[in-house]
């Protein structure tokens, strides 16, 4: 028995280590001789036998079986510049959402891999302040809005016999002058599906590429006046690859477009595919889970705040009939996830919407907040000992990256539940315009005007809560992180109906404050290509809004080596806060990255946030505003 034991860290900014094979015999090092003292970036088994690939210095090595000499099959890599089989920063964070950028064919005879070239992408430098007399910097390529993007190409290499590298040809379309590759999946041992997305992210072309010739045939094209959502989801193929299922936005009357399953079938002796939808309605399919060819049934996950496991006939003949497989299986559970066996004969069903261990948990209420032409999902967390006669502080938590979901019937324990359970607060969340799983009409409303509509919807949820007798109107706060940090900063100065301050305090963790300073793929998706029309970028800045924070407590938290949302965002924000004489506090984490890899740092972070809100919510005698200003003048 042989064990692969790589000491691998998936954070691309951290040095990688060596790889060893452990068996009942002595361990065998796989470090290739030409890369002494190299950094291991990846190692993984293939689909057949003991196949193994590993990546050093952005070059790919292949080992047919343990004990055989590894060969270098891709040698064009350049550390920090040209990536083979791995994502650069932008692709890992915003496009593929994984550090892996290679894909085995089902029979293990071929390997598809992406080559990502960062040579023209501007360099960002992350400072390291501790550990040496002089601070050092770590450079890496980071494309901001309007700047040069990485280029990408997709290749296939044969692993049996002499290595032959073949590039898959991108669509010949003027709209694809610059493009992303958002999805790659093998359909058969010789056919690979590839999704190409324009840089503006409003045109996508799904192709099926021949791995023996490099020729790619268009199977489906999508276009949007706003942006295309859910572009990295994989289709589900039949065994022969002639039929595949994918999710796309389909018009559903006056409700706009919703995401439903479409089947594409190749016809014998015909160059045209038959494309038809097999689900419909004003609800979203959240994921295609499996396709059972014997039964002709497609299994899917669907729901708004809940998630049910459903089956649907894969036939395009007759009426659509959705059958719920998870309903009534577990009492009081409405949120499920599932994992299917390769044959689709069996699946694991997991209930994720029910508290465990019999412990008292915050009580969760679901409701709706009225907005312009829509009713939006709201979730309210109350202490287990809640009574209508008491008065509770209120915390609004915003985390609304476009297309995401904050309100779900899913059980989880976070620092927010600690604030509710241990400190007697009420927490409210609202999925406003721009949130996911409610159709594209609601999703696309925030296009080119981030912040303004979300503020209206979140404030509508707060106004709804302030009508409740149990909410203490003098103790109201807001929190958000990342894009939610942008929203919490944007919302904090909001005025009530009497033009008074709504929020007593607020906090932002790693806030985005200016989208032209943020990643190109993210900013350009929602605000358009920077340089063509910059008005949307100017209108979304938070700096002009923070001048009126004199009377509110504001906690900003940011790591100085944040590789995703640079500390530059907070530096720009603080400059404006100082000009506006704002009452703010800053908590920094020296040399820490965006994701806080240390458990002790996570604990410190959550403790800092909880302590800030506990202090903000503490009932205390306050000086009249006039007296406070007089004392300030005397000083």
TrEMBL record:
It is a single-pass type II membrane protein. Keywords: Cell membrane, Disulfide bond, Glycoprotein, Membrane, Signal-anchor, Transmembrane, Transmembrane helix. It is found in: Cell membrane. InterPro entries: AB_hydrolase_fold, Peptidase_S9_cat, Peptidase_S9B_N, Serine_Prot_S9B/DPPIV. Pfam families: DPPIV_N, Peptidase_S9. The keyword DNA damage does not apply. The keyword Chaperone does not apply. One of its GO terms (biological process) is proteolysis. GO terms for molecular function: potassium channel regulator activity; serine-type peptidase activity. Belongs to the peptidase S9B family. This is A-type potassium channel modulatory protein DPP6. It comes from Ursus americanus. The gene is DPP6.
